[in-house]
Write a structure and sequence with these properties.
About 75% of the residues lie in helices and about 10% in strands. It has seven helices and three strands. The longest helix is centred in the middle third of the chain and has 46 residues.
């Protein structure tokens, strides 16, 4: 757990504190099960994977045309050397070099985009697996080792404040607030969504 602050002189038994904290955690995990990653998965797939696949096809098509043009230029070399071409050797050599550079640049873009698309497909699969895990967070937590439980608690809990007459557990994000804001389009909604997804990803990484 991150920290515990005291406000008052009351002394609580360790078991009492743990009981209150765990009740809050189980309540949080139960709410976490309501988080639906379906929209996030579809958004990631359509805006990232599908978009990159489209770009890849465009780049590949462009390079196909470049290779055809390069072939034509190379066929002109013998004619140019014999003075039977409209291209002078110097100009033809320059055009070939430019075309080869263009092909190499696009090939590098294709390679980079292929790796990016592969990573994004992996992330989509991870989110799909996370969606399955969300259905039994309480069970996952209960079956985790003491060390993993402590790690999960550090991700969920912001602070624990002990007052004279109560113990307050501050959670890093109100999941219900996130759920209620999913369809809104504002900075607060984006912050809530990104924070929730980060918490889910971190928790999943601990038990995957």
């Amino acid at each position: 757990m991150n920290k515990a602050n005291c406000d008052g002189q009351s002394i609580y038994a360790q078991e009492k504190i743990e009981s209150i904290v765990m009740n809050e955690i189980y309540s949080y995990l139960d709410k976490l099960q309501k988080v639906d990653l379906t929209k996030e998965i579809e958004k990631m797939k359509s805006k990232s994977v599908d978009e990159n696949i489209f770009k890849l096809k465009q780049l590949q098509k462009t390079n196909e045309e470049n290779y055809k043009e390069l072939t034509v230029l190379n066929k002109e070399v013998p004619k140019s050397l014999m003075g039977k071409s409209n291209f002078k050797p110097e100009l033809l050599n320059s055009l070939i070099e430019e075309k080869e550079k263009e092909i190499q640049d696009i090939s590098n873009q294709i390679s980079e985009l292929e790796n990016k698309t592969k990573d994004q497909k992996t992330k989509v699969k991870d989110f799909q697996e996370m969606q399955k895990t969300l259905l039994n967070w309480r069970e996952v937590f209960e079956n985790a080792s003491i060390e993993k439980k402590r790690m999960m608690l550090s991700v969920i809990i912001d602070s624990i404040i002990i007052f004279k007459n109560k113990i307050k557990v501050n959670i890093k994000l109100d999941v219900l607030k996130f759920l209620g804001m999913q369809n809104q389009r504002n900075g607060e909604s984006e912050y809530a969504e990104n924070t929730t997804l980060k918490i889910i990803e971190t928790l999943y990484a601990m038990i995957a």
